[in-house]
Amino acid sequence: MKPERQLELWVKGESVHNDERGECCPDFSCCKPWLLAPEHERKTFLGADQRGDSKNERYKI
Hints:
Layout: H1 3-11, H2 39-51, H3 55-58
Helix pairs in contact: 1-2
């Protein structure tokens, strides 16, 4: 799965572990569902990713 597709699903609330690349969702909710970030935080993360902002500085997980 492409990382962009994984991110798209995560923003919609469907946390999917990317087994092909060994990657968790940004909030690790694919492996620990109770960690799913609120919708507004997932959308903020997506916006930062699309703008190329540093996620570590702009969005704390």
